[in-house]
Amino acid sequence: MADEEKDVPITDDNSNQAAEEGPGAALDQALDINQSSAGGEEVANEENPADAETDDNGVVEAQVEDGEQETSGPTAEDTTVDDKEHCEIQEEEPVSADMNDQVETQDTSEETLKEDQADKLEDQGDDHLDATDQEQDEAEHEQGHDLDDEKDLKGQEAQEELEAEGIENIEQELLSQVSVGAGEPQEEMESDSQMDVEKTQHDEIEMEIQEQATEGNTEQENSIGDHGEQEVTSEEHEEQKHVLEDSEKQGDAIGDFDEQRNSSNDHGEHQEAIEDQTEDDEHEPLQAAPTDQLQEDMREGNEQRDEENLQQEEKEQETEQKTAEETEEHEETGQEVSDIVETDKEERDAQDMEEDQGKDRENVPEEGEEVSQAEAAEETTVEEDGKEAEEAGVVESLPEAVAQEADAEMPPSTEESKEEPTEVPPATEESKEEPAAQVPPPTEESKEEVGDITALPQSEPEVDNNENASAPELPPAPHLPSVERSHTSIEGQMSTSALNVVWSFGLNRLVPVLNLSDGVRQAIMYPCAHVGIMYDYKNNKQHTLQAHLNPITCSAVSQDKRWLVTGDVGPDAMVNIWDTYTGTPIQTMFDPNPQGGVVAVALTPDSRYLATLSALPTQTLAIWDWTVDGDVPVCSADLKPEYGVQNFIFFDPTDFHHVVTNSETQVIFYHWADGAMEYFAPPLTDQDFNKPVGRYSQSLFQIGIARALTATSIGNLVVWDNNRPLSKIMDVNQSADKKPLKIIKVHDKGINVLTTTDQYIVIGDTSGHVKFFDQGLRLIYWYREFNSGPCTAISFAHMPDFSPVAPEGSKYPSDATKQAKPFVVRDFIVGTAIAVYCSINTDGTHLKIIHREHDSAVHALAAHPKLPIIAMGSYSGLLKLWNYRTKESVCSRVFEKCHIHTCTFDPKGFYIAIGCTNGAVFLVDSVALLDQVQGPFKSARDCITHIAFSHNSRYMATADAGFTITVYKRQRKEGRNLYTWHGRYRSHYKPIRDLMFDVHLDTNEPKLLSLGEDRMLIEYDLNYVGKTNNKVWPSATDRIEQGAIPQCMTRYPPITKEHFFLTATDQYKLKCFNSTTKMCRKTVLGPTYGSPIRKMMVVPTQSDESVSRFLAYITDDKVGLHFLPATGNPHLAMALIAHPSGISNLACSFDGSYLFTAGGPDFAVHMWEINIAALEAQAKLGGEDLVPFYGLLEGGRDGELYAELEDLFYYAQLRHQGINSTETRQIGNRVPISEVPFIMRAMGFYPSEQEIEDMLNEIKYDEYVNLGHYQEDVDLGQFIKLYVNHRPAFGLSPEKLLWAFETLAHTAEDGSCTLERGDLLDILQKNGEHMTEYELAEHLATLLGFNNEGGTCEQEEFDAQKAGQYIADALPFDVSAEIMINEILGFSMTTDPPAADDTKVVVKSGAS
């Protein structure tokens, strides 16, 4: 019978759902279907089969055949099946003789009920036949009723199904009553609640049908012609005739459904699947009916209904009588039978009457009726599932035209959200009490997906239950973004800072790469210094994740590739959770452990909980409910130091309350719940299994069994099992108490990666092979042709539509089993130890190299002078050229057995000079990187630190770590090397900090300058003629610093009339020197961002070079910009963290648009976009004129220091005119420059004689070029600038004084440092800026208190003889550091001086 039912068309999805919801809902649904038909036509019963004919418009026209078909009661076969069922029930639950009599009575009632129902249907069919024939003749003349006839036919079929379903429900309830026996009556409250639910569902279905019909009004032709209205073909017509003929042979619809009821469960489930599938094919034309046509049909139906009411009075009375009889039978059996009564669906009065009768019957159950709570709960569940299926079905029935129109109004991100539904963790016990986050409404396609799920056959109830149990509830994350994405590719974003990272070259191979591909995008995530890079390798776009202050040390991603976690180690460490759809941080946990960051992170399979492993010295495993609280973990456990540094975390995918971590020597298993955590560290040595174990790399839990695996460095897999008595029964309940079970050798090489995908265990080894095993550790397949280096990371894509079955036409390889089935696995990303990332498309095994970057420190960096080309080289010997506009690699070359340390383009951009750590210098062209000389230059034995070209490319100079410079000269003759050795000279005794070519102003010939840590600036004669072939010789040597150490230098741009070069020192000062006289003309305070400037260069410009220019610079870890000319205003400079582990080099694009910084040991190069407008805005916000400098004074304009400075400034005028003079003094706003040193000393700044000279020269020559004469005085504003710029940036510290004293003193055997009195006086008179004996006596006498403060200028004449005697008496023979600093100089040392060695280290580091 199931095969016969297969061909019966299902008219509407809602009718089937209503039948599932219950008899009352089925009746309401059937009434709604008839009311929506046109002209009030009556639906023919199954006893009057209709022939399907197709008119000119392709609409089905149903014509009722003449004649009647007799209906009969149940067949003998049905009766036999019923008897069998009764026997089975009696065997399960024996009954007494009285119960047997009751069973026989109920069987008789059942047969009587069927006969009465058949008679009723036969009479009803006779009445409907005459009316239908007359109406059909009229319909032939009206083409507008064609669609209504089709609905009439479908309504008839729905009515037949509802009647049969009702009878089936009655018989099933009869059998259930026999097995249950007599019981207490059902409570009236439950019946009322059930009827209310059914009526509510009926109202909702009617409203949704009317709304959908209204929406389809404007798209009538499209919805009928283009969007799937199925035409009934001649074959379908024949199938319907065969079905009706079979129905005649069987008897009637009641007998057919009886046979279906008695069929096996498998046939029933198969039948429901067929009905659901047929409903999906048939219900769309009904929903697509235009609103105007329906309204016209309903008006005509109302008119005909009035006429028919007169003719049907007798029929109504007869129907009511039969209904009363059926009601009495229903009360005896305790089950509703309202759905077997099929009245005229177009008569509202009859419908209300039937509903009232149904309610009365439910409220008055028959004695002996018993309904268990489980059955009631099951009915409620069925009704809810039916309602959900009904809602999904309504959406499915919308025409495609309406769906397309709805899609057109959606934002662009909807398309992506359709293809990629977000996987959301199921609610746990702890999360049930928490409010769920708001979820955006589903899109049309997502609704269709839900509809497909609800339309599945009911033979798989477990799948539906699991889906309902894991209802998608997003974790209540703070500021949770929408699941919709506005773009499928990753794009960079511009910020309001003066420097913005727009691209990052290179990668950190020490942190595994993560696959972010999810069916919508093809992307990966990897750290690059302190930023995370989301790289869309399909579209070649990056999105930078900036939040960390330290290099990123670990990362993890959720299974759906949405939530990303990054962590770092160092000061101000943090853990960030990112939304990869928007690239914004969702949660930040600042300094999660005080010890300094995390070394490993992991997310649970549902992404709700986060696990972190802290860094040394004390490791802590913490579990965080990051969606709720980012400050306090749910639970944590402190680990013992002897376990080693745990650096890997893995959650059990079936029970995330179990966790495993491992170090190289110990594996630890954890179990956490209810805020508590316990862990076990099972021991394992080489002696336990009499074989070597190796160093642990990664661990995981097996699926389906209580075992775990750990990979080792020698190719072993350690199998861990529950620590329980020996038994052959495999335990499936996970336990944290484990022990080693066995060691399995799976590879000859070390295993670096151990992970899972679907049901496979995946390993990656040091040979670069990727192997797949099943849960029994049987090898299924492996990839070994990558040739990309040792595997360090394997990450699989999230493919929502992934199926393990190979589709037709695919090219999946065959696995290693005997069946050689296609090996279907998700696409994955492989990361290697040599900084190669490759993507593997498993369908066809296509390998694509995504990145091939530097795997060693990057120090060499140079920008092309005329093209958007950047060259970068590393210690791996790789030199790579990038087009930074298109973000594409131009060419690359590997220099074997060489570590590239520096590189430089020549001024025209034709050649690149490359310096290596072994002293070799290569010269290659800038297009193909081909050698331009025969072999490298090997003049030096030490590392080449600097390379420079002259402005006309005539000379090329190098500086090496041996404090030597080498010059090469260009050759014009063909057939020779492009450059040849010209000269070499060692002029410094400390490392060379910078090398630069300048020009002679008179001849425009190049001149070479070198600057060293020995504070010497040396100019070279490049045409020296001597006894040897060496033509390089120093022509001028100048000591430009006394105490500070110069760091770098660069040519000053032509924004002044004089020619300068600029230097930076380790005391945060910028100094301008005249390029001809080497005189210091200006000293200003430089940027003070943690460390001094290490390298700087003037940003090129394409406009007028005389306008305002900018200086780009790097410190130890920051990159910044500075306005020129420099004035000491701190608001003219800015800096950002570029590479926390240190910046090794700086380069600037030829047009001044971008800066490039190399990170050295972090293998990365950042590209920064320059935003000058932001820097200008920052400078204006800082104030103008003296306002920024007032802020540099302690207390500002209203502070004590400023008031004291004013007093001293005016006192200096009195002092200059004479303290003891009686003449009238002239007080103005300027003081002579000769008084400047005294005011400086009075303010607590004690400059040297050289520094005083520099200050006076700065004042005198400030306007010399413009005015033509020296400036002899200074006003208060100029003095404030002079004081702020020349004083120490961070004051004079006792530690620096202590370091200076210990440098001069002698260290005794006991470690104390003392200086004899005679040696001290001798040093002060002979070394450095030596003093005369008279000056020394005067100053010491004043410091020791013999003279009044102020010296001889303001008081009487100084007596040197008396002062000498006093010094001999007051100054001790052995002078210690404490006496020198505390008693003589008058500085306070609050702590004891540290040891000699420690002091030197502290002071030197502070000074540098």
What does this structure look like?
The chain is 32% helix and 25% strand. It is elongated, with a radius of gyration of 46 Å. The protein is an alpha+beta fold and 1408 residues long. A hairpin with a 2-residue loop joins β18 and β19. It has a four-stranded antiparallel sheet with strand order 3-57-56-55, with no helix packed on it. α16 crosses α19 and α28 crosses α33. It is built from 33 helices and 62 strands. One of its GO terms (cellular component) is sperm flagellum. Keywords: Cell projection, Repeat, WD repeat.
Number of helices: 33
Give me the secondary-structure category.
alpha+beta
Q: Major β-sheet, in short?
A: 4 strands, antiparallel
* Strand line-up across the major sheet: 3-57-56-55
Poorly predicted spans? 1-109, 177-191, 216-237, 247-291, 332-345, 359-493, 1391-1408
Outline type: elongated
Strand content: 15-25%
Short overview:
About 30% of the residues lie in helices and about 25% in strands. By secondary structure, the chain is of the alpha+beta class.
For this entry, give a set of tags.
four-stranded antiparallel sheet; 33 helices; alpha+beta; disordered C terminus; disordered N terminus
